[in-house]
C-alpha cells in the first residue's frame, strides 16, 4: 500500500510538468497545468484564426506589442522562470531567434505567472535577445484561450504575416521542429 502511495505521489509530480514550489506559483498536483509534447502543429491557411491583441510591459522596463511587428512572422513563447521545460527550451528559442532575425522573423516572450525578480534573473542568465512581456496575471495567455490552454507552459505560437496563428507547440519545442516550421511560415 505504501509503495502505491509513493508511486502515485511521484506520478502526480511528473504529470504536473512545470509545477513549482515558490509561494504563489503552481504546486505539484495542480491539475490546471497541462503538459505537452512540444511538437509543432501547423494550421492550414484557410483554418487560421487571427491572433488577439498582445501588448504589455516588458521585463526590461519597456513595452512590446504584436501590432508593432505587423507584416512579419512572429514567434510568441509563453514561459516562466519556475518552469523546468521552459529553462530547457530557452537555448533553442535563443538560437532560432538569432538565426531567423535577419530574414524578418521576430520573437516575443510572454512571462506567465511569475515573480518579476525571478523572471529578470532568468532573462539575465539566458540572454534571449528578444523582449518578454511580464504577464503575471495571465491576461495575455487568457486571450489565446481556444488555441492555447491558459495553463500550458511552455507553449509556442507562430503568427503569420497576416497576423493569424499559423502553428503552435504545447510543451518544450525541439530545435529542428521550430526552425522548420518558422522557415515554412516565413516562406509562405
Summarize the topology:
Blueprint: H1 2-15, E1 40-42, E2 55-57, E3 63-65, E4 73-79, H2 84-100, E5 105-112, H3 116-126, E6 132-135, H4 139-143, E7 155-159, E8 165-170, H5 175-186
Parallel strand pairs: 4-5, 5-6
Antiparallel strand pairs: 1-8, 2-3, 4-7, 7-8
Helix pairs in contact: 2-5
Fold and architecture overview:
With 188 residues, the protein is an alpha/beta fold. It contains 5 helices and 8 strands. The chain has helices spanning 2-15, 84-100, 116-126, 139-143, 175-186; strands at residues 40-42, 55-57, 63-65, 73-79, 105-112, 132-135, 155-159, 165-170. The strands form 2 sheets. Strands 1-8-7-4-5-6 form a 6-stranded mixed β-sheet. The protein has a two-stranded antiparallel sheet with strand order 2-3. α2 crosses α5 (175-186).
Amino acid at each position: 500500500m505504501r509503495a502505491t502511495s509513493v508511486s502515485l505521489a511521484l506520478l502526480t509530480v511528473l504529470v504536473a510538468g512545470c509545477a513549482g514550489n515558490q509561494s504563489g506559483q503552481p504546486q505539484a498536483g495542480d491539475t490546471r497545468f497541462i503538459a505537452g509534447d512540444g511538437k509543432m502543429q501547423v494550421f492550414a491557411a484557410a483554418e487560421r484564426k487571427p491572433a488577439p491583441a498582445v501588448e504589455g510591459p516588458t521585463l526590461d522596463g519597456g513595452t512590446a506589442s504584436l501590432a508593432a511587428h505587423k507584416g512579419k512572422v512572429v514567434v510568441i513563447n509563453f514561459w516562466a522562470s519556475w518552469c523546468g521545460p521552459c529553462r530547457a527550451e530557452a537555448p533553442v528559442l535563443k538560437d532560432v531567434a538569432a538565426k531567423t532575425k535577419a530574414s524578418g522573423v521576430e520573437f516575443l516572450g510572454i512571462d506567465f505567472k511569475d515573480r518579476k525578480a525571478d523572471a529578470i534573473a532568468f532573462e539575465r542568465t539566458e540572454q534571449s535577445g528578444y523582449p518578454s512581456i511580464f504577464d503575471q496575471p495571465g491576461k495575455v495567455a487568457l486571450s489565446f484561450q481556444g488555441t492555447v490552454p491558459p495553463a500550458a507552459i511552455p507553449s509556442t505560437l507562430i503568427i503569420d504575416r497576416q497576423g493569424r496563428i499559423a502553428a503552435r507547440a504545447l510543451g518544450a519545442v525541439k530545435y529542428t521542429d521550430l526552425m522548420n516550421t518558422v522557415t515554412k511560415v516565413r516562406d509562405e
